[in-house]
Amino acid sequence: MRVNHSRVPAGPPGAAHAASRPVPAAEHRPRRHRWPWVLRRLGRADRWAFDRVAAAHLPGLEYVLPRLSRFADNGVLWFTTAGVLGLAGRPALRRAALRGSIGIAVASPAVNIIGKHAFRRKRPVVDLVPPMRIRWKLPTSHAFPSGHSASAAAFATGVALEAPAAVAAPVAATAAAVAFARVYTGAHYPGDVLAGIGIGALAAAGTRLVWPPRPPAARIGPGGVEDVRVDAEGRGVVAVVNTESGDRGSEVLPGAAGMAVDVLERELPAAEIVRLEPDDDVDKVLGEAAARAEVLAVVGGDGTVNAGARAALAHDVPLLTVPGGTFDHFARAYGIESPADAIAAYRNGRLGRVDVGSVQGPDEEQLFLNTASFGAYTEIVDRRARLERRIGKWPALAVAAVRTLRRSRPVELDVDGHRRRVWLAFVGNCAYGSPGAAPSWRRRLDDGRLDVRMVTTGRRVPRARAVAAVLAGHLPLMPGYRAWRAAGLELWSPAGGLRVARDGEVSTMAGTVRFGKHPRALAVFCPA
């Protein structure tokens, strides 16, 4: 009989005994993940918080919160608020309304299309909620996250990024009330609301990536501000009004300049008001007004303010800018966005001295407060002027930009002694902070520098890309883009003349053209 001896591989002493030892049941169990346990704890806490809110009795809110929640359906509350802010006439409030609305447009699909279908959480059981609080019609969609809370947080965050605290705080309080009302009326668990708030706030904050919020008003450095005596009734103030500036209004509602005049007459009854007629010589009228004024006030757009600055410099009087045009870039640059702001700045009695840009030719000198430009920009200004009476300034600007950038040709120039083919060129009075073809804000108005941005090109111009870059506001995306800061710039045109746009007004200058600065030359009334 043959015996088969099995061979056991060698191992350490006791290995066979260990192999034969029974393995505890715990060692056979798979490793438990902690996430289900954490989610169960959060779910219990969420339900406990919901029960506490459902059992709470808040006198006075039993009637208000359910109706506030219903008014927020489909964003009606927030779009109504956006409309009111837009009609207020202040650019900061219009920007706030637009940013808040864009935040809702981003947050709402993220919550209702993605979030709710991804989590599919059921709505709370409303046994503990008093019947008078329950919505007229219980929602049938999934609970997590809360769409109402996301819209509320998105709008409130967008408004907070642009509007002053006096406006942002009530909007934020209303948004918080809407979010709480979603729990109070039994529509959502607190966790649903918190998740919606987070998504909405992130959506509104994310708009900064493509549309940076406007920074605080440009400031004037130390030593550039001085006190001046002012009269509460406006004696010594001569206000020149360009009634053709901005929106001319209608028979029912006055235009921007008309409303500014109403504010001046009400707040400064002793001030002299001079209305420019269509056939008047603007420089002559402003010069005569500045000669007899202690304070020269100008109501109109940037072109009128430019002429007022020339008169104020010639007669050494301070300038009070009163917004009354379409853009009002200079007034808004240092915080005067409405006629009421101008009145407050006058009564504040603080003068700041700001830089004035200069474009000098062999026989003349022209000034600019905001920007000077040449190349295709002058064609854009010409086309806009021809179109704006028919379709308005903003549509005219967009149409003029597209038509010009599709057809314009580079200009041969000597730029500081170097031959260039210049397609677009922008020269700012002081450094502009935002990128793009037409930057709109500055941090300082007295830095003594010029902000030069130029697009030079070869024989071929990438027109489609250029149109997209200019309209999107990102000029650095274009090939041939250059930007630098300088105290001066010298140009010479082989063609014999250079068309230059200054604060929206176009003129032709012959010979060598020099851009420079008059540092802290102009005295203006500053907001508090």
From TrEMBL:
<dbReference type="InterPro" id="IPR036938">
    <property type="entry name" value="PAP2/HPO_sf"/>
</dbReference>
<dbReference type="InterPro" id="IPR001206">
    <property type="entry name" value="Diacylglycerol_kinase_cat_dom"/>
</dbReference>
<feature type="domain" description="DAGKc">
    <location>
        <begin position="257"/>
        <end position="363"/>
    </location>
</feature>
<feature type="region of interest" description="Disordered">
    <location>
        <begin position="1"/>
        <end position="27"/>
    </location>
</feature>
<dbReference type="Pfam" id="PF00781">
    <property type="entry name" value="DAGK_cat"/>
</dbReference>
<keyword id="KW-0472">Membrane</keyword>
<feature type="compositionally biased region" description="Low complexity">
    <location>
        <begin position="13"/>
        <end position="25"/>
    </location>
</feature>
<keyword id="KW-1003">Cell membrane</keyword>
<keyword id="KW-1133">Transmembrane helix</keyword>
<dbReference type="Pfam" id="PF19279">
    <property type="entry name" value="YegS_C"/>
</dbReference>
<dbReference type="InterPro" id="IPR016064">
    <property type="entry name" value="NAD/diacylglycerol_kinase_sf"/>
</dbReference>
<keyword id="KW-0812">Transmembrane</keyword>
<keyword id="KW-0418">Kinase</keyword>
<dbReference type="InterPro" id="IPR017438">
    <property type="entry name" value="ATP-NAD_kinase_N"/>
</dbReference>
<keyword id="KW-0378">Hydrolase</keyword>
<dbReference type="Pfam" id="PF01569">
    <property type="entry name" value="PAP2"/>
</dbReference>
<protein>
    <submittedName>
        <fullName>Bifunctional phosphatase PAP2/diacylglycerol kinase family protein</fullName>
    </submittedName>
</protein>
<dbReference type="GO" id="GO:0016301">
    <property type="term" value="F:kinase activity"/>
</dbReference>
<dbReference type="InterPro" id="IPR045540">
    <property type="entry name" value="YegS/DAGK_C"/>
</dbReference>
<dbReference type="InterPro" id="IPR000326">
    <property type="entry name" value="PAP2/HPO"/>
</dbReference>
<keyword id="KW-0808">Transferase</keyword>
